[in-house]
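Q:
My hope is that you can spare some time for a protein that puzzles me. I hope you can help me see how the letters and the tokens relate. Thank you; the sequence and its tokens follow:
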Amino acid sequence: MNLKKSYKKRIKKLSGKMILFIFRLFPVIGKYSALPLVGPSLKRMINLDPSELTQTYVLNLNRDVTDKARQVVLPIDMMKQMVWDSKYRAIMTSCLCRTAYSCENFPRNHGCIFIGGAAKAVVEKHMGREASIEEALAHIDRGAELGLVGQAMWVEVEAYIFGFKREKGVAHWLEICFCCPCCCSAFKLINATKQPDIKSRFRSVGWKADIDEETCVRCKKCIDACPVKAISCRDNRIMIDEEACLGCGLCAVKCGKDSIKLHLETPLLATVEDYFIRGGLRIQK
């Protein structure tokens, strides 16, 4: 069965409400994923078994919180390069996460950008519209204006939802997500689970938050801002867990004293797609 026919067969069985229900399941499954008997089965339900290759890379969209002293390419520009390199792209009509959780803090109609095969599937299902390069770039800038977090994602359970035939280690698309700290299913999953093999699927492309203790007034706004609970206060010191930090930049945005900046901790790869390739995926657009 070819990809197009497979997609139509699968999507016909899944209503819009069912898709939103699946998104709401992510944190629930994450919470119980450590149980010895049901945990492995739950992870397989959303394709997070250790053998699966679902992975996400965070790209901060706010230029002002990123240390530019090293004259490196900024995360938002890496995201835009994905669009420039794409042959076909589509913008979803709405964000599935914000719609699933009835978000009241950020616009629900600012959806993901799909690149490649799934982009065509999104258009055929009337879940989004084909977008030009210029429209997609403007959509990224709008995400930055809204204060959303950029994520480049390949989620295997979505391949199933969209009806793509399973091909081990092959991604038929990449998606660019614009995530809010309150409703993002990925952030909810990270916070709900204690499983290292799940948490490790969500990564920074190289940036980590760093705090200047001399200027920090310990207002704790950064603690509340962090969507993955990587910041805490111990012994009257603000502590950032570097391993847990995804480099999203929300803590730096909330800091009124400019005490937090994102610093590049590991050398950048040439493109965002190279991170997925290094993660074991073969990209087919």
The first helix runs from residue 3 to 13. Confidence is low (pLDDT under 50) at residues 1-13. The radius of gyration is 19 Å.
